[in-house]
Amino acid sequence: xxxxxxxxxQFKSDNETVNVLNGISFHVKKGEKIAIIGPSGSGxxxxxxxxxxxxxxxxxxVVFEGMALTDRRQDINKIRRQIGMVFQHFNLFPHLTVRENxxxxxxLLKVKTQKQANSIAESLLDRVGLLDKADVYPIRLxxxxxxxxxxxxxxxxxxxxxxxxxxxxxxxxxMTGEVLSVMKELAKGGMTMIVVxxxxxxAREAATRVLFMDKGKILADEKPEDMFVSPxxxxxxxxxxxxx
Amino acid sequence: xxxxxxNLFLIFCLLWLFNMGGVLARDIVSEIKERGYxxxxxxxxxxxxxxxxxxxxxxxxxxxxxxxxxxxxxxxYIKDVSYDAIPLELSSGTCDFALAGMSYSEDKDKNVDxxxxxxxxxxxxxxxxxxxxxxxxxDLHGKRIGVSLGYTxxxxxxxHFKNSEIVRLPNSxxxxxxxxxxxxxxxxxxxxxxxxxxVKHSGLIxxxxxxxxxxxxxxxxxxGSNLRDYMDEILCELKEDGTVEKIVERYxxxxxxxxxxxxxxxxxxxxxxxxxxxxxxxxxxxxRITCGALVIGIFIGSIIAFAKLNKxxxxxxxxxxxxxxxxxxxxxxxxxxVQLFVIYYFIFVxxxxxxxxxxxxxxxxxxxxxVGVVLQSGILSVDSGxxxxxxSLGLNGRETMLKIVFPQALKNVIANLCNEFIALIxxxxxxxxxxxxxxxxxxxxxxxxxxxxxxxxxTVAIIYLLIVALLSSAMxxxxxxxxxxxxx
Lengths: 244, 488
What we know:
The complex is a heterodimer of chains A (about 240) and B (about 500). Chain A is about 35% helix and about 25% strand. Chain A has about 240 residues and is an alpha/beta fold. In chain A, a hairpin with a 2-residue loop joins strand 9 (about 210-215) and strand 10. The two termini of chain A are about 30 Å apart. Chain B starts with 8 loop residues before the first helix and ends in a 6-residue tail after the last helix. Chain B has helices at about 10-20, 30-35, 60-70, 85-90, 150-160, 170-180, 190-200, 225-240, 245-250, 260-270, 275-310, 315-335, 335-345, 355-380, 385-390, 395-425, 440-450, 455-480, and strands at about 35-40, 45, 50-55, 55-60, 75-80, 95-100, 110-130, 145-150, 165-170, 185-190, 205, 215-220. Chain B is of the alpha/beta class and about 500 residues long. In chain B, strands 7, 8, 9, 10, 11 and 12 form a six-stranded mixed sheet that branches. A three-stranded parallel sheet of chain B has the order 5-1-6. In chain B, strands 2-3-4 form a three-stranded antiparallel sheet. The interface of A and B includes residues 93, 104 and 109 of A.
């Protein structure tokens, strides 16, 4: 479904060049749930953002369903419709109600009529337990509620894959659970997911593969039981011993 | 009376450069006759020579101009501009001739021609308080003398009374008020306004019999044309058959009625001769100019904000960015009046656009710079996550701007935009400089007729205040609506 080949990313400022991604290759099959873990600054988020070209790779190729994202001739907006994304800081549109947040893109991009979009918004909100919040503005929601709405907003476009960029990092611990359970349910439903996370419980329970990234490279790509029970790489052992 | 020419030395230099090729005598007379009308430029703030009666421009000069047009068998168009702008109107070819109480002096015939014949001899007289010890010209030495800025009285006194304090005021009405409050010893002005002022303030001031000097009002035409000789001929005829004398008598026989007491002043300033109509006309023009300028300003401002924020590096964008910086520097770095002058006299000089439209454009261009900066800061105030979230859903750049970023930016800057709008309304008060009758100028016009500055000024101030108050509450409502998503 997604192929990544030899991905490099450099950030250039006036006096220094930082190599954030140093040659990443991997591929995702339909239905896989991939957790990306690793120390901060290892390039996890940058890598994820390259997958829908919010970040422009310096070198390398990203192919989604046979379409090369890195090819300038591709209509990136059309491809992005099929790739949902959830951000650390939710990024709900504060000037729109919850319902409008969810239905704006499908209706504006003529993927759905307003009526279809509304009914899908309602059923999705019902699934995450927020139907009663459909007509309030985001400012009246808690962090956990905001993130659940953000997930619904991405789902309303019927994406083929969902990218999560540290979806629980900005939440109070007690709100983390409600977001994680929505994500686990989504995983059960068969959605292809790529999740950058610090939540080892999620990586262990819901992921089919776990990627460990350090210094812009993938150090390990294993099943969760292998990664967490008997990590081979000393760097991974060190990391896990610190956080578990 | 007045002399605008020194003030405009710089603009003349520019105009001279523009006109370098065309100083040979041109056959304007045939041109005018062929087109069937002749256009007069004047400054209707000098009763009884030219002033507004309701919406109509009337006065001695206007009637003489009518007689001239009649002799030529042409229709007469009258254009009313600020006094300073008259020479520009002529040298730019917008108008054919001027009668505006203008008199010849040696240094001022460089860019226009004065007729050899004069049609009126005006005395510059000395006005003093009733009990003053000043009896004759010599007594003026060492005194505080009030004059109208740029008028011939100003130049005469500056030259002849070197040890006196010359106080230059906007007009003789205000000069006399200054004298009555004890801040001046004497006022030098034209005989006719002086006589009128003596009637208005009867018992408080008097006009001395000895006058300072006499000046001859002449017809002014563009430089280097055969129009001057032609005007001389006509003036000669009009003087010989007594037409000029009759016109002058008609306007000077009875001094104007000034109304007594506070209510009388109000009645005289607002109701007499339908003067409220001038105020209404001014109000309409102010609103029209402001609204037009607002639309143009928002349009230009959006382009400027777009140019400043766009990250693309194409040649077109680079040029646009450079232009935006240049535009912001020039517009924010120069006075509005100068911009208005340049736009009216250099950019739109050869078009048929009405003055109101030109004013709209000038104020719009000015406002665009400020709106642009406000919008730019508004867009920058929106979190980049908003942009990323919208793009991740598949919205393109334009849709993201329109639906997500712009509405939030607008909410953040609505107060600043409102501020700019209010400033704009009041700023339009300088449009009188190109002769548009806006609210402020309507007040000026009435003031010159009634010799009373207070009622018109207060009226105008109250109207501005009402407009701004109305606007502020409307803006509050809009802001509340935009902020409804902020209520917890």
